[in-house]
Amino acid sequence: MLRNTKTSRRAFLKGAGGAVGAAALTGNFGLTDAIRTLANDTDTVRVQGDVPQNKMSAVLPETSNEIVLRTPHIVKEIAPNTPYEVWTFNDTGPGTHLHVRQGETVNFTLVNDGPMPHSIDFHAAQVPWDRYYQSVAPGESLSFEWTPNFPGAYMYHCGTPPVLLHIANGMHGAIIVQPEGGWPEPAREYVIVQHEWYVGEADADGVHRGDFQKMLRAQPDFVAFNGYPNQYQDEPLVADPGELIRIHVVNCGPSLWSAFHVIGALFEAVYPNGTPANRQEVAQTVSIPPGSGYTVELRIPDEGLYPFVTHNFAYTGIGALGILQIGNP
Ligand SMILES: [Cu+2]
To answer: Residue 159 C-alpha to ligand 1 middle, in angstroms?
Structure first.
């Protein structure tokens, strides 16, 4: 877990110069140390202890139209034995799952506590790019209001060039817009962000960073659900036999398609863009382009284990496989 070592922070930072590049991180610490960039002063903080895992819950959070996103760069374990400088929204990449209510004002603030310019782009919003989606300098913030007019499962991301680099390093996430009046039927709701990791060789500090050439070729080392490859094999998503399960799947890419599929099950309804009015009945697999979302509904009658994957099998084996556990098989 993160334990700030504030007493040593200033001394460590003298040599960091406010940057998080490899050259700034040549202190005498090992793989199990973590480095964290903090607010306002674009400081870099060394945190003792194990590198935190970049795992996220798949449970859809309660709705809130008050959103603050911060952008620290944090060394996280993005796969076993792979400490990586994640460019985060609120300490993880993908960033916090967001869940807002259609038709109500969203009060949003972006706080750039990273070491470089970052920005926001909400696919759920209708706002001028030239005013709200511009880069925010380190130590500065940007606030604006907007209203989600259309329900759905949307991507949000940093749009600072090179956008490919910012997204691939973790600056993306899901924002689910709950329809006015809610969905017709309550369900056990999950949110899954599919995304890629492109891992460079470890730097002298033992920390990996993104490999831009791999990103350009779209040859990932891992394809993950919610930050960490295969995490829901060890900790399955759960539901009861016959219960309605609603999964909001957002493909943040940055570059690969998702062919979302549950083995041993069928979707009884699917909703392109995650929008209730788009309801279609019965599907085996849905095709989700990067930068889009889909909501799927299923009911599984029998207890057992049901893997969910991207059925694009070149990538299934590098992390895009989780387990849905029905009952207590
Ligand atoms: Cu960014």
So the answer is: 6
